[in-house]
Amino acid sequence: MAKDRDKDLKLTLGDLDARFTDADAAGEYLESTRWANGVVCPKCGESEREPYRLKNQKRRLWKCRACRKQFTVTVGTIFESSHIPLHKWLLAFYLLCASKKGMSAHQLHRMLGITYKSAWFMFHRVREAMSDPGFSAKLSGIVEVDETYIGGKPRYRGKPGRPGKADPQKVPVVALIERGGRVRSSHVTNVGARELQGAIRENVDRKARIMTDQFGSYRGLDQYFASHEVVKHSEGEYARGDAHTNTAEGYFANLKRGINGSYHHVSHKHLHRYLSEFDFRWNARDASDSARTVAALKQSEGKRLKYRQRPA
Fold it and tell me: Is position 264 within any domain?
């Protein structure tokens, strides 16, 4: 039975699945992912006296026997109050989860036949669903730490210099990667020791082994963790046994290819949502496109993002 249910949850584009072309089929599919163990009223949480579906309705409308409220599968999710049909939402989730380097809002607006403004906001809401809200479990084992700069082209004034810290068009991003496991990346205000080490202590277990390059802001981490090993890039050293930051550099390479190739420009105030997108795909890198989509859909519950909030 479990195998049959998992098979039903799979999504593909190759056979023009009806769930991507019919709103009612998409609604039924979302119900099967959100309420796998039975329908639960999003208004009062009632599940024992299972809500019933109202017949002769143009949409899949349910009613709770306890609170007598009517609801659909979109209530209390990222889809709530959207006028875009559910099958287009489902396709947007699938496309962003399946595209390794992301997909532009312009591409989505052409594919779905909606306005660019709607496509842009849809993708931001999908990224909100992808975001990890809790960070309940700290990273452990071997954790690689590295920082980079994301942003516009360097602007030289006077003598040509090296773009980076002094370039106002670029913002620093730090990535913490559990060797063989999860990644957590975030935008930091600066790359000073207080900022970087604070992020590391907040997200990494004290028993972990930390791997970094020789950047000065990482000095002293051995006081807080099991060990701190440094690879000296300035001396041509990129690996010493299991001491390296190659995994973190690989993550940044994928992030930059996505931003430069698909998005071209990412504003500072929206950067954290793009990081959530790339983190989500990295953390589910061993899963199929279908499994990643289902995971993102399941995370859409309990999250709202309204356009007037201007995703910050």
Answer: yes
Structural domain boundaries enclosing 253: 142-283
**Burial annotation 179-197 (CB, 10 A radius, 16+ → b, else e):** beebbbbbebeebeeebbb
> Rounded CA gap, 300 and 146, in Å?
30
Model pTM greater than 0.90?
no
Q: Assign residue 193 the CATH number of its domain.
A: 3.30.420.10
How far is residue 275's CA from residue 175's CA, in Å, rounded to a whole number? 10
Mean pLDDT by 10 residues, the chain (312 residues): 52 71 91 91 85 85 92 93 93 94 94 94 94 79 94 57 56 94 93 94 94 94 94 89 93 93 87 94 93 93 73 46
Query: Taking the CA atoms of the chain, what radius of gyration do you get in angstroms?
Result: 22
Residue 124 lies in a domain: no
**Within the chain, what is the greatest distance between any pair of CA atoms?**
74
CA nearest 140: which of 200, 214, 217? 200
